[in-house]
Amino acid sequence: MGTTVNGRHGSTTGKETAGGGAGRRPGEHAAPRGGARLTGVRKTYGAGDTEVHALDGVDLELAPGSFTVVLGPSGSGKTTLLNVIGGIEQATAGSIEVAGQEISGRSPVDLAGFRRDHVGFVFQFFNLVPTLTARENVEIIVELTGVGDARRVPDLLAEVGLADRADHFPAQLSGGQQQRVAIARALATDPDLLLADEPTGALDLTTGRQILGALLELHRAGRTVVVVTHNASVAQIADTVVTVVDGKVQSVERNAEPAAAEAVSW
Amino acid sequence: MKISLRKAVRDLARQRTQVTAVGLTVLLGVLMFVAAGGAFRNLSTSYEGTYHRLGFADLLAVGTDPQALADAATSTGAATTRIRTQVEQPMTLSGTRLLGRLIGMPPAGHPAVDDVEVTEGQYLSPDDPDGVLLEKHAAATFGLAPGDTLQVATADGWHTVTVRGVVVSPEYLWPARSRQEVLGDPHSFAVVFASQDQVQAWSGQAPNQALVLLGGASQADVTGALRAAGASDVQTWSDNPSDAALTLDLNGFDTMSKAFPLMFLTAAGVAAYVLLTRRVLSERPTIGTLMAAGARRGRVVWHYVLQGLLIGTTAAVLGTAIGAPLTVLITRVYTTELGIPDTVVTAHPDLTVIGIALGVLVGALGAAVPAVLAARTVPAEAMRNQATLPAPGRWSGVVSRLHRLPVTTRMALRDVVRNPRRTFATMLGSVLGLVLVLASVGMMTSMIAALDTQYGTVQREDASVVVEPGAQDQVAQQVSGLDGVATVESALASQVTVGFDGSTYATSLQGISPDTSMHGFISGGHTIALPSDGVLAGAGLADQLGVAAGDTVTVTDASGRTTDVRLAGLVDEPLGTLLYGTPATVQTLVADPTPVLLVRFDSGLTTAARDGLRGEVTGLDHVLAYTDTRALLTVVDSYLGLFWAFFGVIVALGGVLALAVIQVTMSVNLVERTTELATLRAAGVTVRKAAGVLATENLVAIVAGLPIGLVAGVLAAQGTLGLFGTDMFHLRLSLGWWVLALSALGVVVAAGLSQVPAARAIRRMDVARVVRERVT
């Protein structure tokens, strides 16, 4: 049995104007958006003797504008949880409502459209196109999805601190810079939710802190941010910490005083 | 089964689409090698079987005293000789008047030299002097069978004879009057064999040919003896127009048995290389682990070479298994269609062995470089499985400046140089496809263009009419008055032998009016006038005799009279190598030239009207023969449907070749780009657009290969045409823009089709799994 968690920003959804945090003072939070509600979600791989329950009856509510860290040991189902929320995997059973939309049972084409409009992903290994510059890696998402504004790309790169690296190729960027390009790419369609799978997994501590700081900034812009990690120390910066074990939500804890990214250590 | 073999088999099964594409290409290459090579050998053996069984003369000497020639040959060691009369004689077969060939034979029994095989009826008999043998092509053309009659012109008028038998002759397996008329109006030529005495009586021509079977004698010695004994011309098998035409056809099989397999096996080798290189790169961690555990380099090399060998060997065995029965089928169909009496089908174990060896070689060579690459894997680096991002080169910087281009286009432009070997392989797919198509189709389009030139620019008459000496003006007037006839011109014709510097060449001498409107003399692209002194010759004479414009050549007529004449120039004519002079010049060179009328019809005349005119003209008194000059065009037109079918098959084959290579390179590209594509899909990019990104890159490589392929294809077509260049054909390459465009389009369509599996793969892609993996 899962636990319902309410975020600290209420339940309002709806997109902010292009530019994200433009016009806000540092530390000020914008109107929250995104949010997700999972009810009785199951995800099963294989069949018969090889059947594996990656998610086994998950009930979970992530408030719009919340910053959630999902913890759990390897193979616990935390990445699967992230994927079903983001619509790149379909649940075997249960209901999933994301940004006010029910996505369970939708066709792959519909899910692609849903992701286009509402979700941004950040992956552990960045997955940048090596033959595109930082700017082009972000622009290509706008070009291919038809969502977002290519003129905003320099602003997005500036938001992640890469204004002066826009014309560099991935091979000319450090791991942290590449991950920041990946974050800017995820923001290209101005998503309601930003889903990050082990975003600091391939980075050293200093670079990892920079990435977490960038994610916190995006959270302050009102987006719902979900970070999956096996690194418990990352949980300090979240307002909500969900622990997944054997496909079940073992605990949901509210963090009354989220720490700054600089406080994280591993 | 050894574990490494088991792994190799399973690895190949996992990539069965790509492996099938490579295997299919090897199979087709080996199949063509075995089938075309085997058919070439079988047909050669079949011809030679017929030649030997019917005693096809090794040498045919022409001269006024053939008995002296035969004696000279015998004294030089020739095994068998025979003399005979051969003469061009007006005939009427089924109402069609033509200039046929009358050949003397011994009536009492089959000769040992240049015998015939009776396929219907009976051989000649001394008891039936008016019974003749009709060559089977003429029998088929005119619908004549034993018991039917035909008329032969004699000094006493038309003489009716009866067909005793229909025969096959080794000299006329392909019915051609001369090397100048290998392709012609089938209704204008017939070969009739009759008793030597009767031939002499009907034509008034004494024996004029000596036929020689060499046995163990030296061809050079006997030829020398014949020339010394007064032979005006000595012809070998290869000089015989029938044998020359069939040899050209056989050369096509020979070329096909080498060139096509070469292209397909090259493509297969490159595709195998691309496929296995990707396999090695994706297995670097495993290889690193094995190397760290002390695996021997040789074993690693062998493991990957084994995969290439499995593909190559399996496909080659299948190719030879299908190729062997196909050889038999091709041989039987071909000999049946051409009416070759002997069909020799033998097994060619050496071709099977070579075919399998080629498959093994292609598999081994394709796998060799990736296998060595695998064996050079540094364990520490491989096990770290560090993704190495390519450093941007100068090209990437150049593309960066193209801000106005869509990002996907910029990406495609950079990706072309991202993996040059893969790009090269993709380009090779389109290059080989185009070479295959253009080399094959260029032959046909050039032949059609040659016919257009021959009958549009050079030979402008619609018909030629042979008339009795002294009746030329009278018949010309009558023919001019017929409805449908526009122009009539008088001309002369005669068979002659041209000699220069010890070499001779038998051809036809045409006497044409200097202000003719019936013939165009083209030299170096310009029209030239017929000289009043000297003769013009087809450019092929330069190759035949080593002669050049300005030289003096010797012309020998049928009576043996020899005259020197200046070769005023060489003319470019697609079909045949003839000699031209004014009527006055011809009369100085030849004793009794044949009077001929060249006739042009009104434009737009229907085939039925032309046939009607043939009947009207041949119905006139003093008309001895009639040739519809454009009959060949009519035949070619009737085969245009077949031409298009052939074009379609070749384009499809070229497409398959391109598809096989491109499909492999594209699917390897897809594997290399999986993470990028999955990331795009995770961001909500549709399958169509994600596939479009990949397709754009592939198409850039393919389009980049098109100009190279077109140039290589044109060069290959020129090379192929060169193989068929003889005194009978002078083909210039003619590839219309539409051929180039359609061929290029065929390759692009094949490339487009190869994107379909890519789109399906992207649709089936497990985005969630892929985005978690580290790029390798």
Output the keywords.
heterodimer; A: 266 residues; alpha/beta; Rossmann fold; six-stranded mixed beta sheet; five-stranded mixed beta sheet; 6 helices; 11 strands; 26% helix; disordered N terminus; B: 776 residues; alpha+beta; 4 domains; six-stranded mixed barrel; 24 helices
Quick recap:
The complex is a heterodimer of chains A (266) and B (776). By secondary structure, chain A is an alpha/beta fold.
Describe the structure.
The complex is a heterodimer of chains A (266) and B (776). Chain A is α/β, with parallel strands linked by helices. Chain A has a domain at 65-78 and 107-260: P-loop containing nucleotide triphosphate hydrolases (Rossmann fold, 3-Layer(aba) Sandwich). Helix content of chain A is 26%, strand content 24%. Chain A has six helices and eleven strands. Chain A has helices spanning 78-86, 108-118, 134-145, 153-159, 175-187, 205-220; strands at residues 3-4, 36-45, 52-62, 67-71, 93-98, 101-102, 119-122, 193-197, 224-228, 240-245, 248-254. In chain A, the strands form two sheets. A six-stranded mixed beta sheet of chain A has the order 7-8-9-4-10-11, with helices on both faces. Chain A has a five-stranded mixed beta sheet with strand order 1-3-2-5-6. In chain A, α3 (134-145) runs parallel beside α5 (175-187) and α5 (175-187) packs parallel to α6 (205-220). The longest helix of chain A has 16 residues, at 205-220. The radius of gyration of chain A is 17 Å and the shape is globular. Chain B has 776 residues and is of the alpha+beta class. Chain B folds into four domains: 1-54 and 248-386, no CATH class; 59-244, no CATH class; 392-459 and 629-776, no CATH class; 461-628, no CATH class. Chain B is 54% helix and 18% strand. Chain B is built from 24 helices and 22 strands. In chain B, the strands form four sheets. Chain B has a six-stranded mixed beta barrel with strand order 3-4-9-6-8-7. Chain B has a six-stranded mixed beta barrel with strand order 13-14-20-17-19-18. Chain B has a four-stranded antiparallel beta sheet with strand order 2-10-1-11, covered by helices on one side. In chain B, β7 (149-154) and β8 (157-168) form a beta hairpin. In chain B, α9 (297-338) runs antiparallel to α10. The longest helix of chain B has 42 residues, at 241-282. The two termini of chain B are 31 Å apart. The relative contact order of chain B is 0.12.
